[in-house]
Every structure is written in C-alpha cells, then in structure tokens.
Amino acid sequence: MTTHRASTALAALSAAVAVAALAGAVTPSARADGPSAMASLPAPAPSAPSALDWKPCAVAKGPAAQECAELFVPLDYRDPDGPRVRLAVTRVRSDRPGERRGTLLVIPGGPGSSGVALVTEKGERLQRETGGRYDVVSLDPRGVGGSTKASCGLAAEDRDLVHLRSWPAADGSITENVARSRRTAEACARNGGAMLRSLTTANEVRDIDRFRQALGEEKLSAWGSSYGTYVGAVYAQKYPRHTDRWVLDSSGDPDPSRVNRGWMQNMARAVDDRFPDFASWAADPAREAEGLRLAREARDVRPLVLHLAARLDREPRETTTPGVPLTGNRLRQAVQMALYSDNAFPRLAELIRAAGAPAAEPVLPPGLDRPLSDQDAAVTIGVVCNDVRWPASVPDYRRAVAIDRVKHPLTAGLPANITPCAFWKDTPADRPTRITDEGPSNILMIQGLRDPSTPYFGALKMREAFGDRARLVTVDHGGHGVYLGNGNACGDRAVTRFLTTGERPGRDTYCAG
After folding, report:
1. Span 442-448, average pLDDT
2. What is the spatial distance between Cα 106 and Cα 24, in angstroms, rounded to a whole number?
C-alpha cells in the first residue's frame, strides 16, 4: 500500500487524461508490464455472486480488523456464465454491533485508484466519524491493485506521465501527440484483449451490485470521491432502490455526450481558478523564513512560473533523477499535481526555486521521476476511451489546442489535446448513462469552490441533473477532495451528520473556509 503523498502522480494522470483522480488516496497498482492478462482469467462459473471468504489482511497504519476476500464476476455481463474477473474486496466490520445500521461502500477515484488501499487509509477514521454504524467496504476495480490485471504493453517512454498525458510541444505543435496517441491506441488494441475492453464505468457499477449481493445487503450507503462520484451517480441511476445514504464528494459534469472528455476540457479553467491559492501562499511573507517565497506580490507568481516553463522548454535542466530532465512540460505537470492539496505547495515552491537557480539540482516529485506501470496506464486509458466515443479529427484538435493555449497558458493546451481515444479501435459497449431526478432523494453532494480537477462549475451540472434527489454543500476550499481531507469542520460535520442520522440540509448550503 502507498500513501496519499506517494500516489499523487496517478491522481494527476487520472484527472487530466481522464477525469480527476482521486480525493483521499489514489494508489498505483502493482506493476504489471507485459502482455494481456487474459491468460490469468479464472475459468467460467455460474453467474450467481460468489461467496466471500474473508481473511485478515491488516497492514501497518491500517485498521487492525481489516479483512480481504476475492469476488468473481463475469468478464462480460452479456455472457454471464463465461470467463470471470477476480476483484479484490475488503471490509472493516463495525466495532459496535449494537449501533450498526448497514454497509458503507467507499468508491475510489481515478480511474485507476484502489478501494482496498483507500479503506486501509480512511477506514478507521470513517468508523470513528460514523460511530460504528457501518461495516466499511470497498473493492479494487477491474485492472487495479489486487484485481485481475490489464495491460496495453506500452513502451516505458509512452508511459512517462508527460508523454502519456498529451502535453503539446513548446511551439504548440501536436504532431508528436498524434503519433503517440495512435501508437498507444494500436498497442492497446493489439495487447489488451477482452479484459481491456471490459474496463468501463458501466461494468464497475455492475461489479458493485454483484458485491452488494455477495455481502447479502439489500441496500448500500456510499462515499464516492472524484471519478468515484460518477460511478456512484451511475449506480444511483441504475439501481436506485439499492441506495441508502449516498455521498458524492468532488463531482464532475455528467453530460453523457462527453463524459470523460468534458472532465478533461474543464481542467483548463479549473487550474486557473485554483492557482491563485498557490500564488498567495508563495508570496506570503511567512515563506521568507522558509526560503520558499517566490515573489513579493501574489500577482507576480503566475508570470514567474510561465516564464520559467518557457525557459525550460528551450533549456531543460538536469535533475537528481539521471536521464529525466526538468522540461517546461514536466514543470507544468508538477504545478497541476501540487494544486490538488495545499500540503504539496512547499515541494512545488522548492522545485520552482531550484529550477531558477543555476547552481541548484531540481528534485522531481514522485510520479514525475519514472514511468507509470503498464497496468496503471492501461486502466486509465481503457476506462476513458471505452466509456464514450471521442472525436477523431486531428485538425479540430489542432485548432482547439491553439485556442486553449492562449486562453489558459498554465495548462498550455493539454486539456483540449488529442488522446489515444481519438484512434480507439472499439466502439463503446454501453451508452453513457444520463443522470436524472428520477429516484429517491437520498444524495448529499459536497464540493470545493476551487477544485483543480473536478471544478465547481462542473459539479453544478451534476447537481442540476439530480434535481430534488440531492442537496449540495459548497465549501470555500481549494484543492481536490473535501470530506475528511482538508480540515473543513463545517463540511465534515454535514457529511457525518447525514451518514449517521440521515439528516441533510433542507436546501443547498455553504461552508466558509
């Protein structure tokens, strides 16, 4: 298991290539380079949910009572008695049986985050917050962590974060992005097989319902974060009678015509909205004693970063990681990653100071110093490209990038750029789900005002789609993820109250920072 700090890179990848990454923990899977994992798929079995054989699996700093099991589900739900996929599942049972009222599902973000790791990180606190009213459970989605692996067989260079993400060239050209996206799509088609094709939001929702059945629960409560809010929203739309108390933390725009593509494009404005928080921090006189003050005025931080990135485009700097230079795009990537949490601001300021000092040797943040595993890359690409058909016109992407670079120089055209999805070989197996106001009024949304990944203006679209089914708690907060993640007592109280008593605000409410 890795910590939240060590896993920021995958969060950033998931956010820009796909959605947002996670709020809370996003944990890279175990390395799975090589050919398709289809050979390891379990043999066919009856389509009924398998029994769960729980075994202790506690790890250091995790819940002492954490248990793990394996759940086998159909690879293809259209062939329910065909090959199966193994899902790693986990639970921490209520330590107060007399207070227990049900099961709380933790839905991880990503795509690509581990639910097992998230329960390891947050399970004990969730139990404390909710007074033992729930068994806390989660799963590793297909392809992630301990579940059946996925692979595209990508070369290490194509799994480098600043290559897998389509950062345009220094002059705005996307020629290399087009070639890399085509090469990646072809590798996934050649090596991914049925396992890769099965990586979809629709299948994760089906898998969750199989998990519910295996647990013997008529209803689940849930806390979904980042991409997990979309999974949770689709589940609430598909299986409304199986939802109890439903919390969606840091939501994206659920527009079914765009889905992941819309989330990616929204990030340009989202980063612009969030960056002033870092600028204010970096210009604060309190940074002087720490050696991290970047400018005398907050308004000067943004041009400083843009100028430095442009200089690194021309003259990359050697770093403490041999063979991995600090380029303009690697700095831009580091900025995006740091905006997820105020806790990352010092590391970013150190990188910026070192990048501008000729005698210094910059230290790259985790995730920018080595390629992602093939498994992590495959999961993110697979879900993003399998969920919805993406436009294929290269000239249209080229024009969109040129416009976006002018409007949003901090992201330099990335959110509008081409991805492997433009050349994807398979058509979506399911139509994206339209979120509606039809269903029980049992959803509580919580959202930060300045989220660099799932921006507030996108979350309002989710809120609008749910209508009277939901209430929204808006928190004056910068960063990604709110509940139990940023220290806002007002927001935490609203969610905890709902989970423990069922009480929601009568109308949408606001929590000051």
Report:
1. 98
2. 11
Give CA–CA dist 284/298, Å, rounded: 8
Residues 150 and 382 sit within 8 Å (Cβ to Cβ): yes
Tokens describing residue 344: 């990352």
Under the banding of pLDDT at 50, 70 and 90, the label for residue 412 is very high
Nearest to 275 by CA among 241, 303, 242: 303
The total number of residues written for the chain in this structure: 513
In angstroms, rounded to a whole number, what is the distance separating the alpha carbons of residues 170 and 309?
Answer: 9
Phi, psi of 88 (to 5 degrees): -80, 125
Predicted confidence (pLDDT) per residue in 486-504, tens digit: 889 999 999 999 999 999 9
* Among candidate residues 218, 210, 254, 275, the one with its CA nearest the CA of residue 445: 254
Order of all β-strands in the sheet with 509-511 = 55-56, 67-74, 84-92, 134-139, 102-107, 220-225, 243-249, 443-450, 470-478, 509-511
Per DSSP (E only), the strands in 320-434 are none
Map residue 105 onto helix, strand or coil. strand
Coil, helix or strand at residue 91: strand
DSSP 8-state code for residue 390: P
Measured in Å, how far apart are the chain's first and last C-alpha atoms?
32
CA distance 407 to 170: 16
- Minimal CA–CA distance to 226: which of 284, 266, 196, 198? 266
Q: Which amino acid is at 3?
A: T
Neighbours of 187 (CB within 10 A): 21
CB 390 within 8 A of CB 425: no
Measured in whole angstroms, how far is the alpha carbon of residue 105 from the centre of its chain? 17
Quote the CA–CA distance of 354 and 356 in Å, as a whole number: 5
- Does residue 362 contact residue 351 with C-beta atoms inside 8 Å? yes
Longest dimension (CA), the chain: 67
Cα–Cα distance, 472 to 494 (Å, whole number): 10
340-390 tens-digit pLDDT: 999 999 999 999 999 999 999 999 999 999 999 999 999 989 999 999 999
pTM: 0.92
**What is the CA 31 to chain-centroid distance, rounded?**
18
The residues near 153 (Cβ < 8 Å, ≥ 6 apart) are: 33, 34, 35, 36, 187, 190, 191, 374
Other C-beta atoms within 10 Å of 430: how many? 16
